[in-house]
């Protein structure tokens, strides 16, 4: 039986991924209940105590990592991202919400992919999403992921999903270009972000 381990602290140049805490529940709930975002997520209870309970339960699950995406200098929370359904070879990247902060969205995703593929030694990181979720489709293409040939069905809703993924070899080959894209986002954001 696997033992639940706390999410590590992952630090980039301007972004920090820290473990989600119960105190983050109102931020997360606000994001999940936004109709533009919630349209692509499983149903979310509007009850704050339910979100806090979910976070407590998530922290007890083995091989389930949930991070707040924060600005490195101020600690301001800009979004969330998770890694779960971890097996010996692969894991799912999801619970990904980072609106209005493209630099942190990109750097946070790269930090998590690097940790999963290089530190944990997984071979594949993937995400699943509905075909209508254009934001995730664009993000996976920008990060040069490739589409898995077989569709996936959501176990909770029965909805048909797409699976996009990257692997160690592809990530290593694409990482220099991805870091150049990240640097372009930093230049566009300016020095104060």
From TrEMBL:
Signal peptide: none annotated. Keywords: Acyltransferase, Transferase. Its EC number is 2.3.-.-. The keyword Transcription does not apply. GO terms for molecular function: acyltransferase activity. Residues 14-137 form the N-acetyltransferase domain. Pfam families: Acetyltransf_3 (PF13302). It is an enzyme of class 2 (transferase). This is GNAT family N-acetyltransferase. It comes from Deinococcus multiflagellatus.
